């Protein structure tokens, strides 16, 4: 009788250890999939939009007309598609879902800033330009938060991204 009781306790412990290991492994697998596959599929959209934006601001600024056209024809459509694709990624773990929510929040803020920039040019409103730039800065801060959380989760799950 004591042997059966000890065996039962041992089996329960084995099941608990297996479940805990499986949960950790699930986060690890999902994080790798998120970074290597899901984000890789859509990162080109973000990259093209950001590159287009950088091609018409700062030292590359020519005039409002050029900036406006690039916003309307390339930046906003591509970045909008990126945001939608980012929102469509599904998860089974709350950790990776939380990570993606940070990215979505940053991307939405950046998208809204591009929209504000376009409106600012249409209305010739410098205060809207300032708000758009402020939103871009806030988006950058959120992206830094996302990077820190990604690094933390990767370290916690023994993943090394290159």
From TrEMBL:
Coiled-coil annotated spans: 104-156
Keywords, comma-separated and alphabetical: Coiled coil, Signal
Signal peptide limits: 1-22
Protein name according to UniProt: Lipoprotein
Organism: Caldisalinibacter kiritimatiensis
């Amino acid at each position: 009788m004591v042997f059966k009781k000890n065996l039962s306790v041992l089996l329960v412990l084995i099941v608990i250890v297996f479940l805990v290991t499986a949960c950790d492994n699930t986060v690890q697998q999902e994080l790798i999939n998120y970074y290597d596959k899901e984000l890789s599929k859509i990162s080109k959209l973000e990259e093209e939009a950001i590159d287009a934006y950088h091609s018409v601001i700062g030292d590359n600024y020519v005039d409002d007309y050029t900036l406006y056209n690039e916003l309307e024809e390339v930046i906003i459509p591509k970045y909008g598609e990126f945001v939608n694709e980012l929102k469509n990624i599904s998860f089974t773990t709350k950790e990776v879902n939380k990570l993606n929510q940070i990215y979505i929040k940053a991307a939405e803020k950046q998208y809204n800033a591009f929209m504000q920039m376009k409106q600012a040019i249409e209305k010739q409103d410098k205060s809207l330009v300032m708000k758009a730039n402020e939103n871009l800065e806030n988006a950058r801060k959120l992206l830094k938060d996302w990077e820190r959380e990604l690094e933390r989760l990767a370290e916690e799950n023994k993943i090394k991204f290159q």
